[in-house]
Give the backbone structure.
Amino acid sequence: MGHLSIWSFPTRIVFGAGAAKQTGAEAARLGSKHALVVTDKGVMGAGLFAPIEASLREAGITWTIFDGVLGNPIEANVHDGVRAFQESGADLVIAIGGGSPLDVGKLVRLGIHHHRPLAEYDDAIGGDRYITANVPPMLALPTTAGTGSEVGRSGVVTLDVNHRKTVIFSPHLLANAAILDPELTRSMPAFLTAATGMDALTHCLEAYVAKGDHPMADGIALEGIRHVGRYLERAVKHGVDLEARGGMMKAAMMGAVAFQKGLGACHSLAHPLSSEHGTHHGLANALCLPAVCAFNAEVAGARLAEVSVLLGGEASPAGCVEAVRRLRERIGLPGTLTQAGVPRGNLDRLADLAFQDACHQSNPRPCTRDDLRALYEACF
Ligand SMILES: NC(=O)c1ccc[n+]([C@@H]2O[C@H](COP(=O)([O-])OP(=O)(O)OC[C@H]3O[C@@H](n4cnc5c(N)ncnc54)[C@H](O)[C@@H]3O)[C@@H](O)[C@H]2O)c1
Ligand SMILES: [Fe+2]
């Protein structure tokens, strides 16, 4: 027998403008009486809970709000959420927000019946083997269009022990249903739209060129990239355009489905920028992606050329590097780590952390620690 590939597909997805009004019905399908809403203060402040609240009330479901999630969430956010779930007697997690609340929502479910220290569930050390189906159900309502966490199997959190952004991964962490309502993303400011959109692009692009044979992931990645090419600039420039907002929500969802195949060096470079310097995750990817495409050109040239065409560039790997740069510029993001406020002094530590990150293991071209350091250099 040749190389073995493992393929699987996820999640019930309710999509459309106004879909948030289905939250009560979806919660009722899961048998819920009382839900813990896991979110953050920005989401609450933007008034995004209003349609969800109305729909829960209509379905006769009560709720408690936990809005203590930070951007680039930390371990304490998970522990606080677990406590809130237990104290409120909830039977369902409803996570509403960008990747940060959705990820914390998944890890809150994990924490209800799984009592090891979070570090032991780290995917990089095979922690998924401790994760069982014994988790309460969850609904996911994304309010950004980037991470795709609503259909993904991972929760990302910065751990106390090593201060590293750590991926905790298991099929048991998949949401029971994702509710994708473009109206919830309309309040995103241009920067957040642009940065999260580049996260979606990076997921699709890294998955498409990642090592391994996964034609379903490849097909979805290409369609996701096509959506980014068609809708990202529109969504940034005309935030009220619900077709563009919906297109980007689909792109984000497709990115996370596609990256079940694997990610690559760009995500390994991005994670330390967030944990060390607080850089937004999508922006961190946008800053590193062209250099990673150039690094991968010699092994993934044909695929990068295809990606380039979908983004309106020339059919070559160099064209892809240029197309990503141009898109980044058109949507108003900075083009260098310097412009993004990252100091140069810390490069050795960043390179060490990037090398410890598991994502680059599926990069099509193997990376040494020094390759990753050179990639950072190329991004200043
Ligand atoms: N689980 C995964 O597979 C996966 C994949 C990629 C990234 N991530 C993680 O996701 C996190 C990033 O998520 P994100 O980029 O969605 O950002 P986020 O969730 O951190 O949100 C960023 C900010 O935007 C605000 N916000 C969210 N929606 C808004 C809206 N509609 N209108 C106005 N403001 C809004 C939030 O309040 C917050 O202040 C990182 O921690 C990253 O590591 C996870
Ligand atoms: Fe990402």
Q: What stands out?
A: The pocket of nicotinamide-adenine-dinucleotide (ligand 1) is lined by residues 40, 42-43, 46, 48, 71-73, 97-100, 103, 143-144, 146-147, 149, 152, 154-156, 165, 184-185, 187-188, 192, 196, 199, 256, 281-282 (CB under 6 Å). The domain at 190-378 is CATH 1.20.1090.10 (Dehydroquinate synthase-like, alpha domain). The radius of gyration is 20 Å. The first helix runs from residue 23 to 29.
